[in-house]
Structures are given as C-alpha cells and as structure tokens.
C-alpha cells in the first residue's frame, strides 16, 4: 500500500484548534440530511487534461479500459459525506455533485492516464476492442472529516492484465485545514482526487 500523499496547497480552515464540542456547533448550519436544491453543482476537473487536437492513438492491443469504481453507500450519492464522529455521518449542506463521485472519478482517472501515457484509454466497453488492461477498484473514501478538518480520497485499484494477472494497490491523498463549506470542500476534494489520479497513472505507465 502506498503512503498517504498530502498536496502542498492546504485550504485555509476556521476549524483548526477547535474542540469537538465546538465543531458540532460550527457544523450545525453546514450539514444537512436533506433540504432545498443547491445554488451550484460541483464537479471534478483534471489538472492533466489533454490539449485540443488529435486524441490518443495506438494499437488496440495496448488499450486500457477504465471501469467505474465501486463505492460504499455513503458516497454512492451526489452529496458530500461529513464524518461527524466515529459513528455518525451527515451530508454537507448546499454541496451536490453533478454526478455520482465514482463516475466523476472514473473520468478523471481516464483523462489523467490518457494525458500522461498517450495510450488509448476507454471509459466504456467496446465490442470491437479487447483491452490489454482493465482498471477497476473501489473508491473507498471521498468526503470530509469534521473532527480533523480535512478531506480524504482513497482508491483501492485493481489492475487486470491481458494474461489474467491481478495487481492491487491503495492510493490515498488528504488535504488539511479545509473550511466546512461547499466550495472549499469541493475544491479540496478536486485537489486530492487529482493527486490520487496522478499516483494511479504513474502505476499504470
């Protein structure tokens, strides 16, 4: 398993040094189990996006299929989970993804690998192409920790080679000092997700 990666660009936080009892009060207006539609929707943007022009090319025997990762129920929704304590999870108020995080993360992975490797990367099955490799796995963590004031993205990757050989590895990234608001949490998750995607791309190249 790879050690936790911490990007060098922490987001400023108003939660630093606040005791747990104070966190509960601070989050009272920031988390919700329901409510009205948000004013904006969040998405993931690749920091390694390919430039405009011809796409990746190469022999189809070298193609990579990136499957949508599995995800536990608490992040298999379009809301951002908040770990309030060891046994309680709520959702950040007015913070909603345009799609499920697992689907957004698959696109981010595919774009990052495509940009860094130049190989043919597919995001859905094509009956005319048998991929040389398949990347699957589980998006284990993708949310906000209220006690620590940080976001964490953890992906358990499974690499299936053409001969059926399986390789597995865990990739984790954490961004500290994040304010418990939709925009900074979304930005921090985007940073952590890109860091994890870069790790995965380095693994596959």
Descriptors:
single chain, 205 residues, alpha/beta, 3 helices, 8 strands
Could you explain the architecture of this structure?
The longest helix is centred in the C-terminal third of the chain and has 23 residues, at 182-204. The protein has helices spanning 20-27, 101-117, 182-204, and strands spanning 41-42, 64-66, 79-85, 88-97, 121-122, 133-145, 150-160, 166-175. The protein has a single domain (20-36, 61-204), classed as Rossmann fold (3-Layer(aba) Sandwich). Strands 1, 2, 3, 4, 5, 6, 7 and 8 form an eight-stranded mixed beta sheet that branches. With 205 residues, the protein is of the alpha/beta class. It contains three helices and eight strands, in the order H-E-E-E-E-H-E-E-E-E-H. The chain starts with 19 loop residues before the first helix and ends with a helix.
Strand segment tally: 8
CATH class: Alpha Beta
Structural class: alpha/beta
Low-confidence runs (pLDDT<50, min 5 residues)? 8-26
- Tell me what the CATH architecture is: 3-Layer(aba) Sandwich
Q: What Rg is obtained from the alpha carbons, in whole angstroms?
A: 18 Å
What is the strand content? 25-35%
Helix content: 10-25%
As for the CATH topology, it is Rossmann fold
SSE topology sketch:
Elements: H1 20-27, E1 41-42, E2 64-66, E3 79-85, E4 88-97, H2 101-117, E5 121-122, E6 133-145, E7 150-160, E8 166-175, H3 182-204
Parallel strand pairs: 1-4, 2-5, 2-6, 3-6
Antiparallel strand pairs: 3-4, 6-7, 7-8
Summarize the structure.
This protein has helices at 20-27, 101-117, 182-204; strands at 41-42, 64-66, 79-85, 88-97, 121-122, 133-145, 150-160, 166-175. With 205 residues, the protein is α/β, with parallel strands linked by helices.
């Amino acid at each position: 398993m790879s050690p936790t990666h911490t990007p060098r660009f922490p987001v400023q936080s108003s939660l630093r040094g606040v005791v747990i009892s104070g966190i509960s009060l601070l989050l009272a207006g920031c988390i919700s189990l329901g409510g009205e539609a948000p004013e904006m929707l969040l998405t993931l943007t690749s920091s390694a996006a390919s430039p405009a022009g011809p796409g990746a090319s190469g022999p189809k025997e070298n193609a990579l299929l990136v499957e949508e990762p599995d995800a536990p129920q608490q992040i298999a929704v379009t809301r951002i989970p908040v770990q309030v304590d060891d046994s309680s999870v709520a959702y950040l108020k007015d913070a909603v993804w345009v799609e499920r995080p697992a689907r957004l993360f698959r696109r981010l992975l595919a774009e990052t690998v495509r940009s860094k490797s130049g190989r043919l990367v597919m995001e859905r099955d094509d009956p005319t192409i048998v991929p040389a490799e398949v990347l699957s796995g589980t998006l284990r963590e993708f949310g906000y920790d209220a006690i620590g004031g940080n976001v964490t993205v953890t992906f358990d990757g499974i690499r299936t080679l053409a001969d059926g050989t399986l390789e597995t590895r865990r990739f984790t990234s954490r961004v500290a000092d994040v304010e418990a608001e939709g925009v900074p949490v979304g930005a921090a998750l985007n940073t952590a997700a890109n860091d994890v995607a870069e790790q995965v791309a380095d693994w596959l190249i």
